[in-house]
Amino acid sequence: MFEDDVYYMRLAIEEAQKAFALEEVPVGAVAVAASGEVVSSAHNLCISLNDPTAHAEMLALRQAARELGNYRLLGVTLFVTIEPCAMCAGACVLARIERLVYGAQDLKAGACQSLYQIVQDKRLNHQIQVTSGVLKEECRSLMQSFFRMKRLKMCL
């Protein structure tokens, strides 16, 4: 883990909190250029946009590509509060990001280390450096609080 990982993960957590406030699954993502500049940030908007692909990672990758003027995000590090799913992990590989940093594991859908290892699969033409567990308790707690709230609302 690098010193700046905690700083950028806190920014991703801020994005996740925005999703929480919208009653979206609280996942946040921040794309950072090799220079250290934040080139994009996003949070889940699947419900708000009626778009199953509007995951925080997908939105952050799209925004970063527009900002950088290239669909290949060479040298970019993506910070995400929760381990990306198969769709988002695949998009990270296609975007050629250099590094992925995530907070908490997703034991049910994680496609970077938990269930699958898409971003490091040697059969693909690009592999991504992965750092996991950055502020994992904060990331996990946010997710658990969200689903606890959802369950309580269902019971009322």
Approximately how much beta-strand content do the residues carry? 15-25%
Number of helices: 5
Shape field: globular
Mean pLDDT: 96
Q: What would your notes on this structure say?
A:
The chain is of the alpha/beta class and 156 residues long. Helix content is 42%, strand content 17%. It is built from 5 helices and 5 strands. The protein has helices at 3-21, 46-49, 56-68, 86-95, 136-155, and strands at 28-32, 38-43, 77-82, 99-104, 129-132. Strands 2-1-3-4-5 form a 5-stranded mixed sheet. Helix 1 (3-21) packs parallel to helix 5 (136-155) and helix 3 runs parallel beside helix 4 (86-95). The longest helix has 20 residues, at 136-155.
Please give a quick description of this structure:
The chain contains 5 helices and 5 strands. It has helices at 3-21, 46-49, 56-68, 86-95, 136-155; strands at 28-32, 38-43, 77-82, 99-104, 129-132.
Main traits of this protein?
single chain, 156 residues, alpha/beta, five-stranded mixed β-sheet, 5 helices, globular
